[in-house]
Every structure is written in structure tokens, then in C-alpha cells.
Amino acid sequence: SDITPRAERKNIINYQRREKNKREDIDQMADYSSHFPLAEKACKFLTSSPDPYHAVQNMITRLEGVGYARLSKRDPFAGKLEPGECLSPPPCNSVLCLFFVMR
Fold first, then answer.
1. How far apart are the C-alpha atoms of 27 and 38, rounded to whole Å?
2. Cα 84 to Cα 64, 69, 87, 102, 103, distances in angstroms
3. Tens-place pLDDT, residues 1-30
4. pLDDT for 28-63, tens place per residue?
């Protein structure tokens, strides 16, 4: 063999260092398993929303379910805006606008 025992030992040490670094890198990688439920919900939402119009309609349904109120284009907003309230103006096909009145 052309490799001297010293060079062979150096190669082995370098290999062991690289392997140790790989293991440390893997140990430091974030555990994304806690994000799987959110990813599954996002996939379900995107599947049920094949285009922007459906995405807006699905979001309106969800937001109204958690307390957002829809404003009318025809009625003035004065007197309807209370601190801590979440409101959504009427949708324009594929555009959704939300705001929160600060306290």
C-alpha cells in the first residue's frame, strides 16, 4: 500500500470527526413533528380552496365562526366599531380584508 500507517491513522481520525459532526448536525435539527397538525389543516384548507374565490369564502366561514362580524357596504360603520372587535368588510370575490379595533 502507498499509504503510510501515519497517513492511514490520520484518514481514520478525519473520517471519525466527519461522522461525529454529521451526528451532531442531525441532533441539532429541529423536531418538526409538532407542526404536522398545522400542516395537515393547511393541506385540508388548500384542498377545499381550489381558487382565490373559494379560499375567501372558506376564510369568511371560519372567521365568522370565531366571532368576526361582517360589515355591510350600505350601512355606515359609525357606532358599530367597538374596541376589541374583529370585523371583516364584505368580500370582493377574491379579496379578504380584516381589521381589529384596538382598545
1. 23
2. 15, 12, 10, 6, 6
3. 567 788 888 888 888 888 888 877 776 666
4. 666 777 888 999 999 999 999 988 888 888 888 888
